Amino acid sequence: xxxxxENEEKRLEVNPQTAPPKTREGAFLSPRRETETLYAVIKxxxxxLDLDQVLRGIVEIATDATDCHACFIYxxxxxxxxxxxxxxxxxxxxxxxSLGTDEGLAGWVARNKTPEFIPDNAMxxxxxxxxAALEEERFQSMVAVPILSKSGDVIGVAVLHTAAPRExxxxxxxxxxxxxxxxxxxxxxxxxxxxxxxxxQALTTLTELSQALAAVTTREDLYGAVTRGARDLLxxxxxxxxxxxxxxxxxVLAASDPPESPAPSPRPGGTRLALDLMRRANxxxxxxxxxxxxxxxxxxxxxxLLVAPLVVGDEHVxxxxxxxxxxxxxxxxxELLRAVANQTAxxxxxxxxxxxxxxxxxxxxxxxxxxxxxxxGAEAKAAESGFDLAGPHLFLHVDRTGGATSWAELPDRIEAxxxxxxxxxxxxxxxxxxxxxxxxxxxxxxxxxxxxxxxEPLGSELGVVVGLSEVDRGAASARRRIREAADAAxxxxxxxxxxxxxxxxxxxxxxxxxxxxLDDAPRDRYRTSxxxxxxxxxxxxxxxxxxxxxxxxxxxxxxxxxxxxxxxPNTVRQRLERIERVADLDLSEADLxxxxxxxxxxxxxxxxxxxx
Length: 612
What we know:
15 strands; rod-shaped; Beta-Lactamase; alpha+beta; 18 helices; 6-stranded antiparallel beta sheet; Alpha-Beta Plaits; 4 domains; 5-stranded mixed beta sheet
Protein backbone atom coordinates (compact mmCIF):
# COMPACT_ATOMS: atom_id res chain seq x y z
CA UNK A 1 0.00 0.00 0.00
CA UNK A 2 1.99 2.93 -1.15
CA UNK A 3 2.44 5.88 -3.45
CA UNK A 4 1.70 5.72 -7.12
CA UNK A 5 3.89 3.95 -9.61
CA GLU A 6 5.11 5.64 -12.80
CA ASN A 7 2.19 4.07 -14.65
CA GLU A 8 -0.31 5.05 -12.01
CA GLU A 9 -2.96 6.12 -14.52
CA LYS A 10 -2.87 2.82 -16.32
CA ARG A 11 -5.04 0.26 -14.54
CA LEU A 12 -4.72 -3.40 -15.21
CA GLU A 13 -7.79 -4.93 -16.79
CA VAL A 14 -9.84 -6.99 -14.36
CA ASN A 15 -10.64 -10.53 -15.46
CA PRO A 16 -14.46 -10.59 -15.77
CA GLN A 17 -14.50 -14.31 -15.06
CA THR A 18 -12.81 -13.98 -11.65
CA ALA A 19 -13.69 -10.51 -10.46
CA PRO A 20 -17.11 -9.62 -9.10
CA PRO A 21 -19.06 -7.39 -11.47
CA LYS A 22 -18.39 -3.70 -11.08
CA THR A 23 -22.13 -3.10 -11.12
CA ARG A 24 -22.42 -4.83 -7.76
CA GLU A 25 -23.48 -2.23 -5.26
CA GLY A 26 -21.80 -3.81 -2.27
CA ALA A 27 -20.64 -6.92 -0.45
CA PHE A 28 -23.39 -8.53 1.59
CA LEU A 29 -23.49 -11.21 4.26
CA SER A 30 -26.83 -12.70 5.24
CA PRO A 31 -27.33 -13.18 9.00
CA ARG A 32 -27.10 -16.93 8.56
CA ARG A 33 -23.97 -16.65 6.44
CA GLU A 34 -22.42 -14.25 8.97
CA THR A 35 -23.23 -16.62 11.84
CA GLU A 36 -21.78 -19.61 9.99
CA THR A 37 -18.68 -17.66 9.08
CA LEU A 38 -18.09 -16.38 12.60
CA TYR A 39 -18.56 -19.93 13.86
CA ALA A 40 -15.88 -21.04 11.39
CA VAL A 41 -13.61 -18.26 12.66
CA ILE A 42 -14.19 -19.29 16.28
CA LYS A 43 -13.52 -22.92 15.42
CA UNK A 44 -10.30 -21.97 13.66
CA UNK A 45 -9.13 -19.71 16.51
CA UNK A 46 -9.76 -22.42 19.13
CA UNK A 47 -8.36 -25.28 17.09
CA UNK A 48 -4.68 -24.66 17.75
CA LEU A 49 -2.15 -22.64 19.70
CA ASP A 50 0.01 -22.49 16.60
CA LEU A 51 -0.57 -18.85 15.69
CA ASP A 52 0.69 -19.16 12.11
CA GLN A 53 -1.77 -21.99 11.46
CA VAL A 54 -4.64 -19.96 12.95
CA LEU A 55 -3.75 -16.90 10.87
CA ARG A 56 -3.68 -18.93 7.66
CA GLY A 57 -7.16 -20.20 8.43
CA ILE A 58 -8.44 -16.67 9.20
CA VAL A 59 -7.02 -15.34 5.93
CA GLU A 60 -8.80 -18.08 3.98
CA ILE A 61 -12.15 -17.59 5.79
CA ALA A 62 -12.10 -13.78 5.51
CA THR A 63 -11.18 -13.87 1.85
CA ASP A 64 -13.95 -16.33 1.04
CA ALA A 65 -16.63 -14.68 3.21
CA THR A 66 -16.07 -11.16 1.87
CA ASP A 67 -15.45 -12.24 -1.71
CA CYS A 68 -12.09 -10.41 -1.73
CA HIS A 69 -8.98 -11.21 -3.72
CA ALA A 70 -6.25 -10.79 -1.09
CA CYS A 71 -6.00 -10.61 2.67
CA PHE A 72 -3.08 -9.36 4.73
CA ILE A 73 -2.58 -9.41 8.52
CA TYR A 74 0.07 -7.17 10.03
CA UNK A 75 1.47 -7.31 13.59
CA UNK A 76 2.65 -4.18 15.36
CA UNK A 77 6.27 -4.69 16.40
CA UNK A 78 7.70 -1.57 17.93
CA UNK A 79 6.93 1.24 15.49
CA UNK A 80 6.51 -1.04 12.46
CA UNK A 81 3.62 -3.09 11.08
CA UNK A 82 5.17 -6.39 10.02
CA UNK A 83 3.37 -8.76 7.64
CA UNK A 84 2.62 -12.01 9.51
CA UNK A 85 -0.12 -13.63 7.35
CA UNK A 86 -1.24 -13.23 3.73
CA UNK A 87 -3.02 -14.91 0.86
CA UNK A 88 -0.93 -17.70 -0.70
CA UNK A 89 0.30 -15.53 -3.60
CA UNK A 90 2.03 -13.22 -1.13
CA UNK A 91 3.17 -15.70 1.54
CA UNK A 92 6.80 -15.25 0.47
CA UNK A 93 6.68 -11.71 1.94
CA UNK A 94 5.91 -12.83 5.50
CA UNK A 95 8.32 -11.30 7.95
CA UNK A 96 10.03 -9.37 5.17
CA UNK A 97 7.48 -6.66 4.40
CA SER A 98 6.78 -3.93 6.93
CA LEU A 99 5.19 -0.48 7.08
CA GLY A 100 5.60 2.38 9.48
CA THR A 101 2.57 3.40 11.52
CA ASP A 102 2.61 6.64 9.53
CA GLU A 103 2.44 4.84 6.17
CA GLY A 104 -0.52 3.63 4.11
CA LEU A 105 -4.08 2.87 5.07
CA ALA A 106 -2.89 0.19 7.49
CA GLY A 107 -0.81 2.77 9.34
CA TRP A 108 -3.77 5.20 9.41
CA VAL A 109 -6.02 2.52 10.93
CA ALA A 110 -3.33 1.60 13.49
CA ARG A 111 -3.01 5.23 14.56
CA ASN A 112 -6.74 5.91 14.72
CA LYS A 113 -7.89 2.50 15.98
CA THR A 114 -10.94 2.56 13.70
CA PRO A 115 -11.99 0.54 10.59
CA GLU A 116 -11.70 2.25 7.24
CA PHE A 117 -12.41 1.31 3.63
CA ILE A 118 -11.77 2.81 0.20
CA PRO A 119 -14.61 1.83 -2.21
CA ASP A 120 -12.98 2.83 -5.49
CA ASN A 121 -9.79 4.18 -7.06
CA ALA A 122 -7.73 3.18 -4.05
CA MET A 123 -4.49 4.47 -5.55
CA UNK A 124 -5.93 7.99 -5.60
CA UNK A 125 -6.54 8.03 -1.88
CA UNK A 126 -3.92 10.24 -0.14
CA UNK A 127 -3.54 7.68 2.63
CA UNK A 128 -2.25 5.09 0.22
CA UNK A 129 1.39 4.10 -0.10
CA UNK A 130 2.37 2.09 -3.13
CA UNK A 131 4.17 -1.22 -2.41
CA ALA A 132 5.23 -2.88 -5.66
CA ALA A 133 5.54 -6.35 -4.08
CA LEU A 134 1.80 -6.29 -3.27
CA GLU A 135 0.80 -5.43 -6.88
CA GLU A 136 -1.57 -2.82 -5.52
CA GLU A 137 -2.17 -1.31 -8.91
CA ARG A 138 -4.40 -4.36 -9.55
CA PHE A 139 -6.82 -3.44 -6.78
CA GLN A 140 -9.61 -0.85 -6.73
CA SER A 141 -11.09 -1.25 -3.25
CA MET A 142 -9.58 -1.82 0.17
CA VAL A 143 -10.82 -2.29 3.73
CA ALA A 144 -8.71 -2.28 6.90
CA VAL A 145 -9.71 -3.02 10.50
CA PRO A 146 -7.58 -2.68 13.65
CA ILE A 147 -6.77 -5.70 15.79
CA LEU A 148 -7.13 -4.47 19.36
CA SER A 149 -6.01 -6.10 22.58
CA LYS A 150 -8.25 -6.36 25.65
CA SER A 151 -6.68 -3.17 26.94
CA GLY A 152 -7.58 -1.36 23.70
CA ASP A 153 -4.04 -1.16 22.36
CA VAL A 154 -3.41 -1.88 18.71
CA ILE A 155 -1.54 -5.15 18.20
CA GLY A 156 -2.11 -5.41 14.45
CA VAL A 157 -4.18 -4.55 11.36
CA ALA A 158 -6.13 -6.77 8.93
CA VAL A 159 -6.36 -5.50 5.32
CA LEU A 160 -8.46 -6.90 2.43
CA HIS A 161 -8.17 -5.94 -1.27
CA THR A 162 -10.59 -6.35 -4.17
CA ALA A 163 -9.79 -6.07 -7.85
CA ALA A 164 -13.02 -4.20 -8.63
CA PRO A 165 -14.76 -1.30 -6.93
CA ARG A 166 -16.71 -2.45 -3.88
CA GLU A 167 -19.06 -1.10 -1.31
CA UNK A 168 -18.70 -3.01 1.94
CA UNK A 169 -22.11 -3.33 3.58
CA UNK A 170 -22.26 -2.68 7.34
CA UNK A 171 -22.75 -6.37 8.06
CA UNK A 172 -19.46 -7.14 6.32
CA UNK A 173 -17.67 -4.49 8.36
CA UNK A 174 -19.23 -5.87 11.54
CA UNK A 175 -18.08 -9.33 10.57
CA UNK A 176 -14.53 -8.05 9.97
CA UNK A 177 -14.50 -6.21 13.31
CA UNK A 178 -15.69 -9.35 15.11
CA UNK A 179 -13.14 -11.42 13.27
CA UNK A 180 -10.39 -8.97 14.21
CA UNK A 181 -11.48 -9.25 17.85
CA UNK A 182 -11.26 -13.03 17.68
CA UNK A 183 -7.89 -12.78 15.98
CA UNK A 184 -6.75 -10.45 18.77
CA UNK A 185 -7.77 -13.08 21.31
CA UNK A 186 -5.91 -15.74 19.36
CA UNK A 187 -2.83 -13.54 19.21
CA UNK A 188 -2.90 -12.82 22.93
CA UNK A 189 -3.50 -16.49 23.77
CA UNK A 190 -0.67 -17.53 21.50
CA UNK A 191 1.61 -14.90 23.04
CA UNK A 192 0.69 -16.08 26.53
CA UNK A 193 1.32 -19.66 25.49
CA UNK A 194 4.62 -18.72 23.86
CA UNK A 195 5.65 -16.73 26.91
CA UNK A 196 4.72 -19.62 29.19
CA UNK A 197 6.56 -22.05 26.94
CA UNK A 198 9.56 -19.75 26.88
CA UNK A 199 9.50 -19.43 30.66
CA UNK A 200 9.25 -23.19 31.14
CA GLN A 201 12.10 -23.69 28.69
CA ALA A 202 14.12 -20.97 30.44
CA LEU A 203 13.47 -22.49 33.86
CA THR A 204 14.35 -25.94 32.55
CA THR A 205 17.58 -24.64 31.06
CA LEU A 206 18.30 -22.65 34.21
CA THR A 207 17.75 -25.75 36.34
CA GLU A 208 20.08 -27.77 34.14
CA LEU A 209 22.65 -25.00 34.32
CA SER A 210 22.30 -24.85 38.13
CA GLN A 211 22.91 -28.58 38.33
CA ALA A 212 25.95 -28.24 36.08
CA LEU A 213 27.35 -25.41 38.19
CA ALA A 214 26.79 -27.38 41.39
CA ALA A 215 28.72 -30.34 39.97
CA VAL A 216 31.90 -28.54 38.89
CA THR A 217 34.92 -28.40 41.20
CA THR A 218 37.39 -26.28 39.23
CA ARG A 219 37.22 -22.70 38.01
CA GLU A 220 37.96 -23.72 34.43
CA ASP A 221 35.01 -26.12 34.36
CA LEU A 222 32.81 -23.50 36.02
CA TYR A 223 33.73 -20.85 33.45
CA GLY A 224 32.94 -23.25 30.61
CA ALA A 225 29.58 -24.28 32.07
CA VAL A 226 28.56 -20.67 32.77
CA THR A 227 29.46 -19.16 29.41
CA ARG A 228 27.94 -22.01 27.40
CA GLY A 229 24.83 -22.22 29.58
CA ALA A 230 24.12 -18.47 29.70
CA ARG A 231 24.65 -18.15 25.96
CA ASP A 232 22.15 -20.95 25.26
CA LEU A 233 19.71 -19.65 27.88
CA LEU A 234 19.52 -16.15 26.40
CA UNK A 235 20.15 -16.97 22.74
CA UNK A 236 23.18 -14.68 22.79
CA UNK A 237 25.96 -14.58 20.22
CA UNK A 238 28.64 -14.54 22.90
CA UNK A 239 28.93 -14.80 26.67
CA UNK A 240 31.94 -13.73 28.70
CA UNK A 241 33.08 -13.77 32.32
CA UNK A 242 35.28 -10.96 33.63
CA UNK A 243 37.03 -11.25 37.02
CA UNK A 244 37.91 -8.28 39.18
CA UNK A 245 41.68 -8.15 39.62
CA UNK A 246 42.43 -7.46 43.28
CA UNK A 247 45.62 -5.53 42.58
CA UNK A 248 44.60 -3.31 39.66
CA UNK A 249 40.86 -3.25 40.53
CA UNK A 250 40.13 -3.63 36.81
CA UNK A 251 38.08 -6.28 35.01
CA VAL A 252 40.09 -9.00 33.27
CA LEU A 253 38.61 -11.48 30.79
CA ALA A 254 38.49 -14.94 32.40
CA ALA A 255 36.45 -16.95 29.87
CA SER A 256 34.46 -16.58 26.66
CA ASP A 257 32.05 -18.67 24.61
CA PRO A 258 32.73 -19.06 21.80
CA PRO A 259 36.45 -18.85 22.67
CA GLU A 260 37.31 -16.94 19.50
CA SER A 261 34.59 -14.34 20.09
CA PRO A 262 35.96 -10.78 20.15
CA ALA A 263 36.25 -9.68 23.76
CA PRO A 264 35.77 -5.95 24.27
CA SER A 265 38.25 -4.57 26.77
CA PRO A 266 36.63 -2.45 29.48
CA ARG A 267 37.75 1.15 29.25
CA PRO A 268 40.27 2.21 31.93
CA GLY A 269 38.55 3.55 35.00
CA GLY A 270 35.15 2.21 33.96
CA THR A 271 35.19 -0.81 36.26
CA ARG A 272 34.60 0.98 39.54
CA LEU A 273 31.87 3.17 38.03
CA ALA A 274 30.12 0.15 36.50
CA LEU A 275 30.22 -1.82 39.76
CA ASP A 276 28.88 1.17 41.68
CA LEU A 277 26.02 1.55 39.20
CA MET A 278 25.15 -2.14 39.46
CA ARG A 279 25.36 -2.00 43.26
CA ARG A 280 22.97 0.94 43.43
CA ALA A 281 20.55 -0.82 41.12
CA ASN A 282 20.98 -3.98 43.21
CA UNK A 283 21.35 -5.86 39.94
CA UNK A 284 17.77 -5.02 38.97
CA UNK A 285 16.35 -2.58 36.48
CA UNK A 286 17.36 -2.22 32.89
CA UNK A 287 18.45 1.38 33.48
CA UNK A 288 21.21 0.46 35.93
CA UNK A 289 22.53 -2.29 33.68
CA UNK A 290 22.45 -0.04 30.61
CA UNK A 291 24.47 2.63 32.42
CA UNK A 292 26.90 0.03 33.72
CA UNK A 293 27.38 -1.39 30.22
CA UNK A 294 27.95 2.09 28.82
CA UNK A 295 30.49 2.82 31.55
CA UNK A 296 32.48 -0.26 30.53
CA UNK A 297 31.99 -0.31 26.76
CA UNK A 298 30.81 3.10 25.51
CA UNK A 299 31.30 2.11 21.87
CA UNK A 300 28.92 -0.89 21.93
CA UNK A 301 25.17 -0.86 21.37
CA UNK A 302 23.73 -0.83 24.87
CA UNK A 303 20.61 -2.72 23.77
CA UNK A 304 22.74 -5.59 22.47
CA LEU A 305 24.77 -5.89 25.68
CA LEU A 306 23.54 -7.35 28.95
CA VAL A 307 25.62 -7.33 32.14
CA ALA A 308 25.11 -8.73 35.64
CA PRO A 309 27.45 -8.42 38.64
CA LEU A 310 29.10 -11.42 40.28
CA VAL A 311 28.55 -10.69 43.96
CA VAL A 312 29.04 -12.79 47.10
CA GLY A 313 27.74 -10.97 50.15
CA ASP A 314 29.17 -7.46 49.78
CA GLU A 315 32.12 -8.58 47.68
CA HIS A 316 32.17 -7.91 43.93
CA VAL A 317 34.23 -10.59 42.21
CA UNK A 318 33.48 -9.73 38.56
CA UNK A 319 30.72 -9.48 35.97
CA UNK A 320 28.92 -11.77 33.54
CA UNK A 321 27.98 -10.29 30.16
CA UNK A 322 26.15 -11.45 27.04
CA UNK A 323 26.31 -9.85 23.59
CA UNK A 324 23.82 -10.13 20.73
CA UNK A 325 24.07 -8.95 17.14
CA UNK A 326 20.50 -9.41 15.87
CA UNK A 327 18.29 -8.98 18.91
CA UNK A 328 17.66 -6.72 21.89
CA UNK A 329 17.66 -8.03 25.43
CA UNK A 330 14.61 -7.42 27.62
CA UNK A 331 13.99 -7.26 31.35
CA UNK A 332 13.25 -10.99 31.52
CA UNK A 333 16.65 -11.69 29.97
CA UNK A 334 18.18 -9.45 32.62
CA GLU A 335 16.56 -11.41 35.45
CA LEU A 336 17.71 -14.72 33.97
CA LEU A 337 21.28 -13.48 33.60
CA ARG A 338 21.21 -12.14 37.15
CA ALA A 339 20.10 -15.56 38.42
CA VAL A 340 22.97 -17.19 36.53
CA ALA A 341 25.39 -14.54 37.85
CA ASN A 342 24.35 -15.19 41.45
CA GLN A 343 24.96 -18.91 41.08
CA THR A 344 28.23 -18.24 39.27
CA ALA A 345 29.53 -16.03 42.08
CA UNK A 346 28.70 -18.66 44.69
CA UNK A 347 30.21 -21.34 42.45
CA UNK A 348 33.42 -19.33 42.10
CA UNK A 349 33.79 -19.07 45.84
CA UNK A 350 33.10 -22.78 46.18
CA UNK A 351 35.65 -23.80 43.54
CA UNK A 352 38.23 -21.41 44.98
CA UNK A 353 37.66 -22.95 48.41
CA UNK A 354 38.03 -26.45 46.96
CA UNK A 355 41.20 -25.44 45.14
CA UNK A 356 42.56 -23.82 48.28
CA UNK A 357 41.79 -26.85 50.42
CA UNK A 358 43.34 -29.10 47.79
CA UNK A 359 46.43 -26.91 47.68
CA UNK A 360 46.61 -26.81 51.49
CA UNK A 361 46.37 -30.60 51.66
CA UNK A 362 49.13 -30.90 49.08
CA UNK A 363 51.33 -28.54 51.12
CA UNK A 364 50.56 -30.49 54.32
CA UNK A 365 51.54 -33.72 52.58
CA UNK A 366 54.78 -32.06 51.40
CA UNK A 367 55.71 -30.93 54.93
CA UNK A 368 54.88 -34.35 56.34
CA UNK A 369 57.08 -35.96 53.69
CA UNK A 370 59.94 -33.53 54.43
CA UNK A 371 59.65 -34.11 58.17
CA UNK A 372 59.70 -37.88 57.57
CA UNK A 373 62.74 -37.62 55.30
CA UNK A 374 60.83 -38.81 52.20
CA UNK A 375 62.72 -36.85 49.55
CA UNK A 376 60.94 -38.20 46.48
CA GLY A 377 57.48 -37.75 47.99
CA ALA A 378 58.30 -34.21 49.13
CA GLU A 379 59.65 -33.21 45.74
CA ALA A 380 56.54 -34.58 44.01
CA LYS A 381 54.19 -32.63 46.32
CA ALA A 382 56.28 -29.49 45.96
CA ALA A 383 56.06 -29.80 42.17
CA GLU A 384 52.26 -30.09 42.42
CA SER A 385 52.30 -26.81 44.32
CA GLY A 386 54.55 -25.18 41.72
CA PHE A 387 57.60 -24.97 44.01
CA ASP A 388 61.12 -26.07 43.11
CA LEU A 389 62.96 -27.39 46.15
CA ALA A 390 66.24 -27.33 44.21
CA GLY A 391 66.31 -23.54 44.49
CA PRO A 392 67.41 -21.62 47.59
CA HIS A 393 64.75 -21.59 50.29
CA LEU A 394 64.18 -21.50 54.04
CA PHE A 395 61.54 -22.51 56.55
CA LEU A 396 59.48 -20.56 59.09
CA HIS A 397 57.83 -21.93 62.21
CA VAL A 398 55.36 -20.45 64.71
CA ASP A 399 54.16 -22.37 67.76
CA ARG A 400 50.78 -21.66 69.28
CA THR A 401 51.31 -19.90 72.60
CA GLY A 402 49.15 -18.41 75.30
CA GLY A 403 50.42 -14.96 74.32
CA ALA A 404 49.02 -15.18 70.79
CA THR A 405 46.11 -12.74 70.72
CA SER A 406 44.89 -13.52 67.20
CA TRP A 407 45.94 -17.04 66.26
CA ALA A 408 42.92 -17.48 63.96
CA GLU A 409 44.04 -14.63 61.73
CA LEU A 410 47.76 -15.45 61.97
CA PRO A 411 47.98 -17.67 58.84
CA ASP A 412 46.46 -15.03 56.57
CA ARG A 413 48.52 -12.25 58.12
CA ILE A 414 51.79 -14.20 57.87
CA GLU A 415 51.03 -15.28 54.30
CA ALA A 416 50.19 -11.72 53.22
CA UNK A 417 53.40 -10.39 54.80
CA UNK A 418 55.56 -13.06 53.19
CA UNK A 419 53.96 -12.51 49.78
CA UNK A 420 54.77 -8.82 50.01
CA UNK A 421 58.43 -9.66 50.71
CA UNK A 422 59.14 -12.77 48.62
CA UNK A 423 56.03 -13.05 46.41
CA UNK A 424 55.64 -16.84 46.87
CA UNK A 425 54.92 -18.97 49.92
CA UNK A 426 53.69 -22.46 50.80
CA UNK A 427 51.85 -22.34 54.12
CA UNK A 428 51.07 -25.31 56.37
CA UNK A 429 48.61 -24.15 59.02
CA UNK A 430 47.57 -26.52 61.79
CA UNK A 431 45.78 -26.02 65.12
CA UNK A 432 49.00 -26.13 67.15
CA UNK A 433 51.56 -24.64 64.79
CA UNK A 434 52.20 -22.83 61.54
CA UNK A 435 55.00 -23.61 59.10
CA UNK A 436 56.01 -21.98 55.86
CA UNK A 437 58.38 -22.62 53.00
CA UNK A 438 59.59 -19.53 51.16
CA UNK A 439 62.11 -19.01 48.37
CA UNK A 440 65.27 -17.02 49.04
CA UNK A 441 66.62 -14.45 46.62
CA UNK A 442 70.13 -15.67 47.43
CA UNK A 443 71.87 -18.17 49.66
CA UNK A 444 73.38 -15.63 52.07
CA UNK A 445 72.43 -14.63 55.58
CA UNK A 446 71.30 -11.23 54.34
CA UNK A 447 68.14 -12.76 52.88
CA UNK A 448 67.34 -14.43 56.23
CA UNK A 449 67.86 -11.20 58.14
CA UNK A 450 65.69 -9.23 55.71
CA UNK A 451 62.89 -11.77 56.07
CA UNK A 452 63.29 -11.86 59.86
CA UNK A 453 63.06 -8.07 60.02
CA UNK A 454 59.86 -8.09 57.96
CA UNK A 455 58.25 -10.63 60.32
CA GLU A 456 59.41 -8.89 63.51
CA PRO A 457 56.60 -6.27 63.73
CA LEU A 458 53.88 -8.82 62.97
CA GLY A 459 55.23 -11.22 65.61
CA SER A 460 55.28 -8.43 68.19
CA GLU A 461 51.76 -7.34 67.24
CA LEU A 462 50.32 -10.84 67.52
CA GLY A 463 52.37 -11.95 70.53
CA VAL A 464 54.12 -14.88 68.79
CA VAL A 465 57.69 -15.72 67.84
CA VAL A 466 58.48 -16.52 64.22
CA GLY A 467 61.46 -18.84 63.92
CA LEU A 468 63.54 -18.92 60.72
CA SER A 469 65.89 -21.66 59.53
CA GLU A 470 69.07 -21.17 57.59
CA VAL A 471 68.95 -21.07 53.78
CA ASP A 472 69.23 -24.43 52.02
CA ARG A 473 68.84 -26.14 48.63
CA GLY A 474 67.24 -29.49 47.84
CA ALA A 475 65.03 -31.73 49.94
CA ALA A 476 67.68 -33.99 51.47
CA SER A 477 68.45 -31.66 54.40
CA ALA A 478 64.94 -30.15 54.69
CA ARG A 479 64.17 -32.20 57.78
CA ARG A 480 67.03 -30.53 59.64
CA ARG A 481 66.00 -27.07 58.38
CA ILE A 482 62.42 -27.58 59.55
CA ARG A 483 63.78 -28.44 63.00
CA GLU A 484 66.00 -25.34 62.93
CA ALA A 485 62.97 -23.10 62.39
CA ALA A 486 61.08 -24.90 65.20
CA ASP A 487 64.06 -24.53 67.55
CA ALA A 488 64.36 -20.83 66.73
CA ALA A 489 60.67 -20.31 67.51
CA UNK A 490 60.77 -22.30 70.74
CA UNK A 491 63.97 -20.77 72.12
CA UNK A 492 62.95 -17.36 70.84
CA UNK A 493 59.97 -17.56 73.19
CA UNK A 494 62.37 -17.19 76.11
CA UNK A 495 64.50 -14.56 74.39
CA UNK A 496 61.76 -12.22 73.10
CA UNK A 497 58.93 -12.51 75.59
CA UNK A 498 56.75 -9.92 73.85
CA UNK A 499 56.89 -11.68 70.48
CA UNK A 500 58.94 -11.06 67.36
CA UNK A 501 61.11 -13.06 65.00
CA UNK A 502 64.30 -15.03 65.66
CA UNK A 503 66.58 -16.72 63.14
CA UNK A 504 68.45 -19.95 63.91
CA UNK A 505 71.71 -18.10 63.41
CA UNK A 506 70.80 -15.73 66.27
CA UNK A 507 70.50 -18.57 68.77
CA UNK A 508 74.25 -18.79 69.25
CA UNK A 509 75.13 -21.34 71.94
CA UNK A 510 71.48 -22.21 72.42
CA UNK A 511 71.74 -24.27 69.23
CA UNK A 512 74.01 -26.77 71.02
CA UNK A 513 71.84 -27.07 74.10
CA UNK A 514 68.30 -27.13 72.79
CA UNK A 515 68.05 -30.91 72.40
CA UNK A 516 69.78 -31.83 75.70
CA UNK A 517 67.94 -33.64 78.46
CA LEU A 518 67.83 -30.70 80.84
CA ASP A 519 66.86 -32.75 83.87
CA ASP A 520 70.20 -34.59 83.56
CA ALA A 521 72.21 -31.36 83.44
CA PRO A 522 74.34 -30.62 86.54
CA ARG A 523 72.83 -28.49 89.33
CA ASP A 524 75.93 -26.59 90.43
CA ARG A 525 76.30 -23.21 92.10
CA TYR A 526 76.13 -21.37 88.77
CA ARG A 527 72.71 -22.82 88.02
CA THR A 528 71.56 -21.85 91.51
CA SER A 529 72.85 -18.32 90.99
CA UNK A 530 70.98 -17.96 87.71
CA UNK A 531 67.76 -19.20 89.28
CA UNK A 532 68.14 -16.53 92.00
CA UNK A 533 68.55 -13.84 89.33
CA UNK A 534 65.48 -15.03 87.43
CA UNK A 535 63.41 -14.99 90.60
CA UNK A 536 64.69 -11.50 91.46
CA UNK A 537 63.75 -10.17 87.98
CA UNK A 538 60.32 -11.74 88.32
CA UNK A 539 59.69 -10.01 91.63
CA UNK A 540 61.25 -6.61 90.87
CA UNK A 541 60.70 -6.32 87.11
CA UNK A 542 64.43 -5.68 86.66
CA UNK A 543 66.63 -6.75 83.75
CA UNK A 544 69.54 -8.47 85.51
CA UNK A 545 69.35 -11.77 83.59
CA UNK A 546 69.22 -9.96 80.23
CA UNK A 547 72.20 -7.77 81.23
CA UNK A 548 74.25 -10.75 82.43
CA UNK A 549 73.55 -12.73 79.24
CA UNK A 550 74.57 -9.80 77.05
CA UNK A 551 77.69 -9.19 79.15
CA UNK A 552 78.76 -12.83 78.84
CA UNK A 553 78.02 -12.85 75.05
CA UNK A 554 80.20 -9.75 74.66
CA UNK A 555 83.10 -11.43 76.47
CA UNK A 556 82.96 -9.10 79.44
CA UNK A 557 82.91 -5.80 77.52
CA UNK A 558 80.86 -3.21 79.43
CA UNK A 559 80.90 -0.72 76.56
CA UNK A 560 79.74 -3.25 73.97
CA UNK A 561 77.00 -4.52 76.27
CA UNK A 562 75.79 -0.98 77.01
CA UNK A 563 75.53 -0.29 73.29
CA UNK A 564 73.53 -3.51 72.69
CA UNK A 565 71.21 -2.79 75.64
CA UNK A 566 70.79 0.92 74.73
CA UNK A 567 71.89 2.07 78.21
CA UNK A 568 74.83 4.01 79.66
CA PRO A 569 77.97 2.00 80.57
CA ASN A 570 77.61 3.11 84.20
CA THR A 571 74.11 1.52 84.20
CA VAL A 572 75.69 -1.76 83.10
CA ARG A 573 78.30 -1.51 85.86
CA GLN A 574 75.61 -0.85 88.47
CA ARG A 575 73.59 -3.87 87.29
CA LEU A 576 76.68 -6.12 87.38
CA GLU A 577 77.31 -5.10 90.98
CA ARG A 578 73.71 -5.95 91.88
CA ILE A 579 74.03 -9.30 90.04
CA GLU A 580 77.02 -10.21 92.18
CA ARG A 581 75.11 -9.37 95.39
CA VAL A 582 71.84 -11.15 94.46
CA ALA A 583 73.46 -14.25 92.92
CA ASP A 584 76.37 -14.42 95.36
CA LEU A 585 78.87 -14.30 92.50
CA ASP A 586 82.26 -12.78 91.88
CA LEU A 587 82.36 -12.21 88.13
CA SER A 588 86.09 -11.53 88.18
CA GLU A 589 86.75 -15.00 89.63
CA ALA A 590 83.82 -16.98 88.10
CA ASP A 591 84.03 -19.50 85.24
CA LEU A 592 82.19 -17.35 82.73
CA UNK A 593 81.70 -20.19 80.21
CA UNK A 594 80.07 -22.40 82.85
CA UNK A 595 77.97 -19.45 84.00
CA UNK A 596 76.81 -18.76 80.42
CA UNK A 597 75.90 -22.41 79.86
CA UNK A 598 74.00 -22.53 83.13
CA UNK A 599 72.14 -19.37 82.19
CA UNK A 600 71.11 -20.78 78.81
CA UNK A 601 70.09 -24.14 80.30
CA UNK A 602 67.82 -22.46 82.83
CA UNK A 603 66.34 -20.23 80.14
CA UNK A 604 65.72 -23.31 77.95
CA UNK A 605 64.08 -25.12 80.84
CA UNK A 606 61.81 -22.16 81.39
CA UNK A 607 60.90 -22.05 77.69
CA UNK A 608 60.01 -25.75 77.67
CA UNK A 609 57.90 -25.41 80.80
CA UNK A 610 56.12 -22.44 79.27
CA UNK A 611 55.47 -24.38 76.04
CA UNK A 612 54.09 -27.36 77.93
